[in-house]
């Protein structure tokens, strides 16, 4: 009997300990909401011109996103882990050339600035906000658009 009570208490504590993480994740996802524009891009250690992205936008609603670029629109979902340092993000595309692929990344969200370093599908998650030649990593900085 004591063992069963102890197990119930342990399970209760684990569930209670998990609750703040869920709240933190919900808050973080809420902070992502809105329309974002690219201000800088870098891939494999090289700065990229913003021409293809100048009229593009990233719109986040809930845990879903829509990316509109010159070459088309794509949709997907994302998951974050706010307990990691740096925080991690996994982006999964629902359509387009990357349909079904998940890109792992790290991110920093400060006010209206979103910095993310993503790995192309099949590459390892970045560990720093930087790219190197042939890393398959993309570093992006986006600014939230005023409503």
Give the SSE layout:
Blueprint lengths: L1 H31 L1 E10 L2 E2 L9 E5 L2 E6 L2 E10 L5 E7 L8 E9 L2 E7 L17 E8 L3
Antiparallel strand pairs: 1-2, 1-3, 1-9, 3-4, 4-5, 5-6, 6-7, 7-8, 8-9
Short description:
This protein is about 20% helix and about 45% strand. It has a single domain (about 30-145), classed as Lipocalin.
Characterise the protein shown here.
With 147 residues, this protein is α+β, with helices and mostly antiparallel strands. It has a single domain (32-144), classed as Lipocalin, CATH 2.40.128.270. Helices cover 21% and strands 44% of the residues. The chain has one helix at 2-32; strands at residues 34-43, 46-47, 57-61, 64-69, 72-81, 87-93, 102-110, 113-119, 137-144. An 8-stranded antiparallel β-barrel has the order 1-3-4-5-6-7-8-9. A hairpin with a 5-residue loop joins strand 5 (72-81) and strand 6 (87-93). Mean pLDDT is 85; it is low at 1-20.
Summarize this structure as a short list of keywords or feature phrases.
eight-stranded antiparallel β-barrel; Lipocalin; 1 helix; 147 residues; globular; alpha+beta
């Amino acid at each position: 009997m004591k063992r069963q009570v102890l197990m119930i208490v342990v399970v209760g504590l684990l569930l209670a300990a998990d609750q703040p993480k869920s709240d933190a994740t919900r808050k973080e996802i809420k902070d992502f909401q809105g329309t974002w524009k690219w201000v800088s891009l870098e891939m494999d250690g090289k700065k990229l011109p913003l021409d293809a992205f100048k009229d593009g936008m990233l719109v986040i609603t809930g845990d879903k996103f829509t990316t509109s670029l010159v070459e088309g629109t794509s949709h997907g979902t994302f998951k974050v882990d706010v307990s990691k340092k740096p925080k991690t993000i996994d982006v999964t595309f629902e359509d387009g050339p990357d349909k079904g692929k998940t890109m792992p990344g790290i991110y920093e969200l400060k006010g209206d600035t979103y910095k993310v370093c993503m790995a192309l599908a099949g590459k390892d998650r970045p560990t720093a906000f930087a790219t190197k030649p042939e890393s398959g990593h993309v570093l992006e900085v986006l600014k939230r658009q005023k409503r």
